[in-house]
Amino acid sequence: MKLYDTVIIGGGGSGLTAALYASRARLSTLLLEKLTPGGQIALTDLVENYPGFPEGVLGPEISQRMEQQAKRYGTEIIYREAKSIVRKDKSFEINTAKESFEAKSIILASGASFRMLGAPGEKELTGRGVSYCATCDGAFFNNKEIVVVGGGDSAMQEGIFLTRFATKVTVIHRRDKLRASPILQERARQNPKIEFIWNTVIETIEGDKKVEGVVLKQAETGEKKKFKTDGVFVFIGHEPNSKFVKGFVDLNEQGYVKTDAHLQTSVAGVFAAGEIREGAVKQLVAACGEGCEAALAVQAYLEEHFG
Ligand code: NAP
Fold first, then answer.
1. Mean of per-residue pLDDT scores for the chain
2. 122-234, superfamily in CATH?
3. Which residues of 194-225 are buried (b: 16+ CB within 10 A; e: fewer)?
4. CATH topology (fold) of 3-113+238-306
């Protein structure tokens, strides 16, 4: 089995930047990605706050460019999901369903996945009106009425994007104040196709073969009412993709990986960067910064332990 200097798990902004820095440092670098490179950013329509792109840059485009840049310097990318990591003397074995890989160091960069509502009907109707990705599914809702759940940046940004297709987007938020940044709040409030229902949660998603409506519950009074809709887009935050390292490195109560100031986890030689990490600010530019930092920490670790 080839012994890599470093194996990076996850190909979002943090993983691809770590790969770029590691391979430019002439480390033999393998990046494992379970789906497509880019992570959450590949599912985002327009990234407007990555410096250097005053007009914004399409999420899939910047993802592909980052992938090309890492590959150009020698990063090997294999499409596998890491299932577990085992310590082997001075190295680590990363196991996937198909095969195992061996590395002197590891960067955990597997990010986070969309949180689900947990409402009855949600699972059954996912892909049949329930969605977590506006870029992927928005076009299916041309001239339809949809609801968006959540009050954060994702709900506002994706809700605005969905007005390109839908005739009406109703944002359902569990409080009476949005969490989103002021600029996105302003844009959403000014959009004539967007309406808000405050202090309300979705209790059930209804429909036979596809979404036909939801049952809304007023948070304060508990009053319930039916609301007709063709689609439900859920943007209520994320859960860290850290199950495969539970018991291997220390996690906090929410499952985020704990690191020290140099992004090292509780296991020497294993680092974490981006949204999987406790305390990460969850912005593309910050994820890229952490990827760079983790790759530099890996170089220092390898020099100290392997010469
Ligand atoms: P978020 O900021 O955690 O917001 C999640 C929203 O969903 C909150 O409004 C929350 O309500 C609500 N929520 C959570 N659990 C819920 C539940 N079970 N039922 C109903 N509502 C629920 O998540 P996000 O919007 O996905 O953003 C994640 C991070 O990415 C943030 O740091 C954000 O700034 C960043 N981001 C940035 C941009 C950008 O800069 N353009 C775009 C997208 C995301 P409460 O407010 O009551 O907690």
1. 96
2. FAD/NAD(P)-binding domain (3.50.50.60)
3. bebeeebbbbbbbbeeebbbbbbbeeeeeeee
4. FAD/NAD(P)-binding domain (3.50.50)
> pTM for the full model?
0.87
187 lines ligand 1 (CB under 6 A): no
Q: Which of 174, 199, 202, 285 to mutate to test the pocket of ligand 1 (most atoms within 8 A of CB)?
A: 174
DSSP-derived letter for residue 264 is: B
How confident is the model at residue 44, as a pLDDT?
86
Catalytic residues: 133, 136-137
Measured CA to CA, the distance from residue 191 to residue 199 in angstroms comes to 21
The verdict on the CB of residue 165 being under 6 Å from ligand 1 is no
What share of the chain has pLDDT > 70, as a percent? Answer: 100
Instruction: Verify whether ligand 1 is closer than 6 Å to residue 235 (CB atom).
Output: yes
